[in-house]
Every structure is written in C-alpha cells, then in structure tokens.
Amino acid sequence: MVDTGNLQSLANSMTAIASPFRSYLNDLYHKYRLLNQGTVADYIPELALAKPEWFGICAVTVDGQVFEVGDCDQLFTIQSISKAFVYGLALEDHGREYVNSKVSVEPTGEAFNSIVLDENTNRPCNPMVNAGAIATADMIKGSSTDRLKRLLDMFQRYTGREHNINVPVFLSEKATGNRNRAMAYLMLNFGMVSERVEETLDLYFQQCSILINARDLGMMAATLANGGVNPITNERAIDEHYVQDVISVMLTCGMYDYSGEWTYRVGIPAKSGVGGGITAVVPGKMGIGTFSPLLDAKGNSVRGIKVCEDISKDFGLHLFNVAKADRNLKDWIEGNNIADDW
Amino acid sequence: MPKVISIHSYRGGTGKSNFTANLATTIALQGNRVGVVDTDVPSPGIHNIFSLEPEITTKTLNSYLWGQCAIEDAAYDVSANVGLTGDGKVFLVPASVRADDIAKILKDGYDVKLLNDGFRSLVKGLQLDYLFIDTHPGLSKETFLSIAISHILILILRPDKQDYQGTAVTVDVARQLKVRKMLLTINKVHNRLDFDVLKQKIEKTYEVPVAGIFPLSEEVVQLASEGVFCIQFPDHPVSQEFRKVAQQIVE
Question: Of A81, A152, B23, B57, whose CB is crowded by the most CB atoms within 10 A?
C-alpha cells in the first residue's frame, strides 16, 4: 500500500476546488460584490485606507477542506473579533468562576464603547464590549513582554500560521483611545482590573491590531466548530471545556447591537469586527470567514451579514432549525449527483 | 443535465486528442451541443484535428487564465470545419501554441480554480450538453482537477507495459479523488491480439469496465490528425467503435 499523505492532501484541495459548494460560494461572491451599501470605518485614518471593493469568503469544514472565493489573502486588522478568542485564553488562565467575577455575560443594548458597568456588581456587561474586553485582556497571565506573545501564539494555534500587528493602527488606536482609557480607570476603581492598567490598555490596542485575512477567520471558526482543534494542523487551540463559553458569548453578544436579530434570523454564533471581518461557527460542521470593509450603522460588515444569512438559510444551518433546507451541506461539499449544479 | 468527460492517459502518444475529437464529434452528430477544451497547455494539438488554425485563434485558454477575456471569447464554433449541420455543434477552446504563451504559463503558473470556474461558465454560457476535457498526459494539477470535476473519466492505454503500469497508478489516484465514473479504452491494438481476451484481462486487472477497443489502424495513421476520422471514414470499424463508446456516454 502506497503512502498517501501528499496525494491525499492534493486530492483534498482539488475536490474542494471542484465541489459544488465552492461554486455556490462563488455565486454568492458575484451576487454581493456589486452591493455597495455601507461605509469603511474611518475613526482612525489607517482603517479608512481599506478599499470598498475588497471582498472575500472562506469556509473551512471540520474535516479540513477549505473553500475560498475572492480576496481571502487580503490582510486587515482583527479588531473586536479578537475579543472572543482572548476571552477563551482568560478562561484557560483562570477558570470560569474567576473570569465571571470580573466580566459578566449579559448582552447589552448599549453601544460597544459605552462607559457602563453593571449596577450591582460593577462588572462590565460581557467580554465583547470594550470594557469587558479590556477587563479580559487584563486577566491574561504573563509579564508585559510575555502577554502579547501568548496572544499571538494562541492565534497561531487557531489559524496555523504566524501573525503580526499593524503598528500604525496600534499607535493610532492608542493615541485616540481615551474612552477606553476612561473605562479602564473606572474599572480599576472598582477592582475589575489590576494596577497594571496601562500595560493592559497597550495589550488591548495591540490585540485589536493583529493582522488576519478571511481564510484565517474561516480557520478560526472551524477550529471552534471542531471542538477547539484546528482541523488541518490538528493542534488544540483552546481547552475543550471552554469552547462552549466562547461560542455562547459569540451567539449572544457577537454582532454588536444586531446580536439579537442575528441569533433569531441567522442562528450561527458569530463575531464581527470593524476591520470588516466576520467569523461564524457552525458547531460540528464548519467555520465561515468573511471580509468586506463596508460596514452598516451598527458596525457590522454589510456583505458579510448577507453571505452568512444566505448560507444559513440555503443550507438550514440555524442552530435551532428543524425544517428541511433547500440544500444538504454534506451533499454539496462532497459533490454527489444530488448536488450537481452543472 | 450537462455531462463533463475527461480524456486522460498516463503516457503520451496513446491517442487522446484524436480520441477526444472523434468521440466529441460522434456525440455532436447525434444533435448535441458539445464543447471541447484543450487543457494540454505544454503541448496543445487538438485544434489541428478540428482544422482550427493558430492564425485565427487570437484568444485561447491561456488568455482566459490570464484574465484577459471571458472563456466564451476563447471558444470557437468548429461545427462547419467538421461538416456538422443541424442541431449538433462542436465548440473548441484551444490552448496557445505560441512558445511565448507556453513559457508564460510555465513561468507564472495560474490559479487552477480559474480552470474550474471556466468549465462551469462555458457549459452555462454555451448551453452545452457535453463538455470534453483533453488533458496533458501524466499526473498534474490540471489532471487532478479534471478528474475531480468529471462525471466520466476515460483513461486511454495501449497494450504496452509502460501504459499498463501507469494506468494502475492513475486508477489509484482517480479513486482517491472519488471519481464518479471511470472507463478504460484500449487503443492502437495490433491484430495479433485477441480483442475479447484482452478486454477481459484488463477489466479484471483494473476492476474498471472497458468502453472500447481500437485497432492499430493504418488509415488513422495516414490521416495524420488532418481531420476528424469518423467524419471522413464513417463506416470504418474505428468509427463504429466510437459510436459504441458514445452510446455508453450518452446513456
């Protein structure tokens, strides 16, 4: 019997290219690339450099098949998407009880940058709002030099490749981040963050500036969908016990003020970022990553939302869906005769 | 429902391009709209059989792969060249024979996804009933892709030790790629061999059905790729064998 490692890997990439599912994503790409609604984030000048026509879609199955269309190589800053993953690291460092004592998990109708803490407990509402994300970043163990490295190593486990930071974005965020600074000091006052608040703010701004692409987002979501193990490298990115925590806060709080409607309409746990990315987890099946810098009024990628809505509807992927969908995901990925779309 | 058929062989010189041209034409003669794509980029040749001269083909598969045009722009209606009238049509997407074009592809490569998207676009755009993919011999990313997307893969071999061994490898690869349907065709069989015995032996060895056996034919050699054999010699045993293979495709 012949060793089939290389053959299998090449065969996988070919069947992924040839599969009807990729053709479906290609159709979605062409459908929405002409949708020019929304605006590019410009609260710092570096983000305003993004081109409105950039658009990429990448789906990765828990079997490690990668389907991508469009600008999946284009790098952009991860922004708020990082918050879900850093939350996972904080849980690994301290466990649920400690982490929950510093950050609650209630979705809030308030804007992501509001300076609001829970009345009774003084905790920030959830790890996805800025206050919660800062408190979470504060909990990451290590010295000032270690902590960033730990974050970057974590993202590497999720995506399978090394990551860098967009330094101009980091410096801009730092220079203009006064609301964040105010929140951090307010939380220091209530003991929700430690004395090393300036270091934590730096870490928070750096975490938001990590460079990723749509393929990375697909990979990260697929890793969560695969129980915390990267489906291609087989490396564990997060302790299996905390996968549910990360995914549930994504479901309830991941899409800014659109989270309620998103859960109702799309039903796939997801996290968006103002860099234009969305990462969406279909547990046990696959991860979806989208990139399009045009954002709606709530800060979510317009094209990204449309893509996820369509995929959820067409393949019946809403977590609580019981009705038969138009298309069966497995058939379309494997490309048997039922799903043949020639 | 459109069908995609890839014609492949492990070694060169098995008769792929002639086989593709003749099978495609035979099926077009039955009133079908047939497309043929020459994906043998390093050594294109099937355009000769369809009498499509390089001077005319300003746009080729190469142009499409470099994003210079839509794939339909590189498709040429060669129905008249092969004497087809009525509903049946043959469209050919040739690959470029200009050395510079071949060198560019070798140097820069291309995104194999484009090939996949191009095939689909061609089938839809020209409303094809059948798409034939003429491939480069041996294992390459194009052949892998062709095998992965085809409804039917036809492997051509001669009764030759090199072909036998190579076909075994290709059959294995095709199974890894979860090929939907595979058929073997034995070509250039000299008249000392018993065709039925040969057919059974090969079917047993590879566990793949044999769609047709073609004799080594002086007439085919003499035509020398100057035209489509089954149009010029419609009653020849070789042409009859093509009709037999065509029947298995069309069913």
Answer: A81
**What are the backbone angles phi and psi of residue B151, rounded to the nearest 5°?**
-80, -40
Query: What pLDDT sits at residue A340?
Result: 65
How far apart are the CA of B196 and the nearest CA of chain A, in angstroms?
Answer: 31
- Find residue B76's DSSP bridge partners: B92
Encode A125-162: b = buried (16+ Cβ within 10 Å), e = exposed: bbbbbbbbbbbbbbbbeeeeeebbeebbebbbbbbbee
| Residues B89-100: tens digit of each pLDDT | 999 999 999 999
| Cβ distance of B177 and A340 shorter than 8 Å | no
Is there a contact between B148 and A340 if contact means CB atoms under 8 Å apart?
A: no
Q: A4 contacts in B (CB within 8 Å)?
A: 176
pLDDT of B5? 97
Range(s) for CATH 3.40.710.10 in chain A? 5-79+211-339, 82-208
Name every chain B residue with its beta carbon within 8 A of the beta carbon of A334: 178
Pick among 2.40.50.100, 3.30.1360.120, 3.30.365.10, 3.40.710.10: CATH of A5-79+211-339: 3.40.710.10
Task: Tell me if chain A has a CB within 8 Å of the CB of B220.
Answer: no
Which residues on chain A place their C-beta less than 8 Å from a C-beta of chain B? 2, 4, 7-8, 10-11, 14-15, 17-18, 22-23, 26, 334, 337, 340, 342
Q: Write the pLDDT tens digit of every residue in B113-130.
A: 889 889 999 999 999 999
* Catalytic site positions of A: 80, 83, 204, 256, 274
Q: Are strands A211-212 and A76-77 parallel, antiparallel or unpaired?
A: antiparallel
B114 touches chain A (CB under 8 A): no
Q: What digits encode the pLDDT tens for the residues B127-158? A: 999 999 999 999 988 889 999 889 999 999 99
| Contact across the interface for A334 and B178, Cβ inside 8 Å | yes
- Kindly report the nearest CA distance between residue A339 and chain B, in angstroms: 12
The domains found in chain B, sorted by start residue, are 3-250 (3.40.50.300)
pLDDT of A342 above 70: yes
- pTM summary value: 0.83
Mean pLDDT of B59-87: 94
**In this predicted complex, what is the ipTM?**
0.81
Pick among B122, B128, B178, B179 to test the A interface (most A CBs inside 10 A):
B178
Nearest-Cα distance to chain A for B177, in Å, is 5
Per-residue confidence (pLDDT) for residue A341, from 0 to 100: 66
Contacts 24+ apart (CB under 8 A), B173-178: B173/A7, B173/A11, B173/B139, B173/B144, B173/B147, B174/B147, B176/A4, B176/A7, B176/A8, B176/A11, B177/A11, B177/A14, B177/A15, B177/B144, B177/B147, B177/B148, B178/A15, B178/A334, B178/B148
Q: Closest Cα of chain B to A35: distance in Å? A: 22
